[in-house]
Every structure is written in C-alpha cells, then in structure tokens.
Amino acid sequence: MKRIGLLGCGAIGTQIALAIDSGKVPATLTHVYDGSKEASASLVEKLKNKPTIVENSHLLSSNPIDIVVEAASQDAVKDVALSVLQNKKDLMIMSVGALLDESIYDILSDACKDFKKTIYLPSGAISGLDGIKSVKDELESITITTTKHPRSLKGAKFFESSEIDLDKIESSTIIFEGTAKEAVTLFPANINVAALLSLSGIGSENTSVKIVADPNTDKNTHHIEASGKFGKMTFIIENFPDPNNPKTSRLAILSGIETLRKYCSDEIQIGT
Ligand SMILES: NC(=O)c1ccc[n+]([C@@H]2O[C@H](COP(=O)([O-])OP(=O)(O)OC[C@H]3O[C@@H](n4cnc5c(N)ncnc54)[C@H](O)[C@@H]3O)[C@@H](O)[C@H]2O)c1
C-alpha cells in the first residue's frame, strides 16, 4: 500500500483524505499538515484511520511516505515542492498556477530528473487535456472563457487595483481578458485551469483567457477552443462548485482523487 502525506486540509484535501479513508484510493494517509491547526484537527476528527499531524509542511516528506499531495496554495508549492523531491518523494500538485513561474517550473522539472521522482498535475476542473497534449506541436491557438458567479471570484488580487465591484454586477460581464500568465497572477485561486492548459499546450503567453462574472449562474463553466493543423477542438465543462469552497469545482476534487487512485493502483491505464 502506498503511504500518503497531505498538505492542505481544506475543501480538496478533506475529500481526498475521505477517499483514502473509505478505501476508494487504496493507500494509507499517514501524515497531514495545514497552516491552520483547526483545519488539520477537524479533518483528522472525520477519519476512521487517524494520520499524524506534523508541525510544519517540510516534515511531511521527511517521513517514510511515497507521495505528498498538495492541496493548499501556490505559496505552499513554492515553499515545499523542491524539498519533497530532494527527499525522494513524488508530489501531486493542485495549486498548479505556481508552475507558471518559469524559474519554479525549471527548478522542479530538473529536480524530477535529478531525484528520479514525478510531479503529478491532475486535470483539475477541466477535461480535454489528453487531446491538447497530443496535438501540442500542431496547436496554433487556444482560448478559455471561464464564467463564475461573482461570489466565486471574491478576494482575488485583481480587485485590489480594479474599479469593478462584484456586488454591483447584475448581468453577465467580462471582467478580465489577457494571457494565462496574467490571469494566474491576478486570480491565483480561481484559474488553475488556465495554468493546466498552458502547461499542456503552447505556454502561458500564448493561451488566451477571458473571465466572466455572471450573477445568474450556479455553475463554474469553462469553454475551451483549440485549433491548428490537426483541426479544431471545443470543450464545454459546466461544473457545480464545491459547497465548502465555491471557488473550487466538484470536478477538480474528483480529478485529484482519480489521479491519486491511479498512482496507488496496479492496473490497465486508460487515456493519453
Ligand atoms: N487544479 C485545479 O483545477 C484546482 C481547482 C480548484 C482549486 N485548486 C487549488 O487547490 C488549492 C486548494 O483548494 P481548496 O479548495 O481545497 O482550498 P481551501 O481554501 O478550501 O483549503 C486550502 C487549505 O490549505 C491551507 N493552506 C493554505 N496555504 C497553506 C500553506 N502555505 N501551508 C499550509 N497550509 C496552507 C489553508 O489553511 C486551507 O485549510 C488552492 O490553491 C486552489 O487554488 C486547483
């Protein structure tokens, strides 16, 4: 059985831990850490098989585990990812936006080779990354339009310097248009999907992002269009937000669980 350390005990971390505890992911959750002691204690209380709460995030990978699962924040990735690989553990990252910083991407990519370890990035709140990866060399344009309820966008760095008042939006309104690189910086907790598309395809400067606030929607919708020599692909994903964190879609949680289940299982692997 694989042994797992979990960094981040919020909406995603909790559901991943419950999936391990119920046997859906054939593994043992041995250690957890969250910057909030309440969050880690409240998670452990929900589990039949109680993991140890460690005192800081670096202690996760100094224990005898196989993989650290990050479900915390971009800062957490910047802080611990390299030491996880140096400690010869695999890493699954949910806060994918952190990897659009090229120096971090390059350091982690080199560390994977040096320490012979793997970083897993689940497809998160979108589908279609298998196709995008396959046509990468023939891709000429890729755009994503993300539509969310204003409450799912609240607190983003973008609003510190914007005149837009989310509470006053009465109909579907485009609030941001730019590259994935800009989007991930200005909406770090909202648009990890743009980072995933960039990393699978033609990079964050060549991936166009539009963010729409719609007070009449109850879904997080992603409309992706990719075209090039191979032809054209269009994906529309209509996600229900997680009740515990409206910024996070249910699909993002389920994709994290499935990636981990695959990592922990010996079986036929389906899909590209
Ligand atoms: N890849 C995707 O498609 C996708 C989708 C949704 C969310 N996410 C990302 O996954 C991460 C977790 O999402 P969530 O919905 O569970 O968020 P959440 O806010 O519900 O939980 C995050 C938890 O991590 C803890 N935390 C934050 N920074 C930390 C740090 N540096 N060290 C230790 N603990 C820290 C917080 O205290 C909190 O308990 C976020 O970064 C989010 O942007 C990715």
Write the layout of secondary structure elements.
Blueprint lengths: L1 E6 L3 H11 L5 E7 L3 H10 L5 E2 L4 H4 L5 E4 L3 H13 L3 E4 L8 H14 L3 E2 L8 H7 L3 E10 L24 E7 H7 L5 H9 L6 E7 L6 E9 L2 E9 L1 E2 L2 E5 H15 L8
Parallel strand pairs: 1-2, 1-4, 2-3, 4-5, 5-6, 7-9
Antiparallel strand pairs: 7-10, 8-9, 10-11, 12-13
The chain binds nicotinamide-adenine-dinucleotide.
- Biggest sheet statistics: 6 strands, parallel
Radius of gyration: 18 Å
Overall pLDDT: 96
Inertia-based shape: globular
Q: In the CATH hierarchy, what is the superfamily of the largest domain?
A: NAD(P)-binding Rossmann-like Domain
- State the domain count: 2
CATH class (first level) name of the largest domain: Alpha Beta
Question: What is the CATH topology descriptor of the largest domain?
Answer: Rossmann fold
Strand order of the largest sheet: 3-2-1-4-5-6
Query: Which stretches are poorly predicted, pLDDT < 50 over at least 5 residues?
Result: none
Structural classification: alpha/beta
CATH architecture of the largest domain: 3-Layer(aba) Sandwich
List the helices and strands in order: EHEHEHEHEHEHEEHHEEEEEH
Q: What is the first-to-last residue Cα distance? A: 25 Å
Number of helices: 9
Q: What small-molecule ligands were found?
A: nicotinamide-adenine-dinucleotide
Overall helicity: 25-40%
Number of strands: 13
DSSP strand content: 25-35%
Description:
With 272 residues, the protein is of the alpha/beta class. The chain folds into 2 domains: 2-121 and 252-264, NAD(P)-binding Rossmann-like Domain (Rossmann fold), CATH 3.40.50; 129-239, 2-Layer Sandwich (Dihydrodipicolinate Reductase, domain 2), CATH 3.30.360.10. 33% of the residues lie in helices and 27% in strands. The protein is built from 9 helices and 13 strands. The strands form 3 sheets. The protein has a 6-stranded parallel sheet with strand order 3-2-1-4-5-6, sandwiched between helices. Bound molecules: nicotinamide-adenine-dinucleotide. Nicotinamide-adenine-dinucleotide binds next to helix 1, helix 4, helix 8 and strand 13. Nicotinamide-adenine-dinucleotide is lined by residues 8-13, 34-36, 39, 57, 71-73, 75-76, 79, 94-96, 124-125, 189, 192-193, 245, 248, 252.
